Amino acid sequence: MTETIIVSNLACAVICAKWALDLGFTQIRQMIFLVGGLLFGPLVLLVLYVLLVNKAKDAGVRAGKAF
To answer: Where along the chain do its domains lie?
Structure first.
């Protein structure tokens, strides 16, 4: 059970760092999101997903072409 949580949080951390890069955050903030993803997993992903959707909406990109 613990291994599953560790692996899923590690995957969340990598995705969080990638999305922070896509949002144009500095390397320090990317590392903060990486650590946040390791500790809080899906909650940090939700925050970054909302930021990505809002960025795409502001840029006028349609939903299917945002990513």
So the answer is: 2-65
Residue whose token pair is 């896509």: 22
Nearest to residue 17, comparing CAs of 43, 55, 54, 25? 25
**Cβ atoms of residues 29 and 61 within 8 Å:** no
pLDDT in tens, the chain (67 residues): 788 888 888 888 888 888 888 888 899 988 888 888 888 888 888 988 898 888 888 887 776 565 5
Residue 17 Cα distances to 14, 21, 43, 58, 60, angstroms: 5, 6, 14, 22, 24
pTM (global) more than 0.90? no
Q: Which one, of 33, 57, 30, 54, lies nearest residue 43 by Cα? A: 33
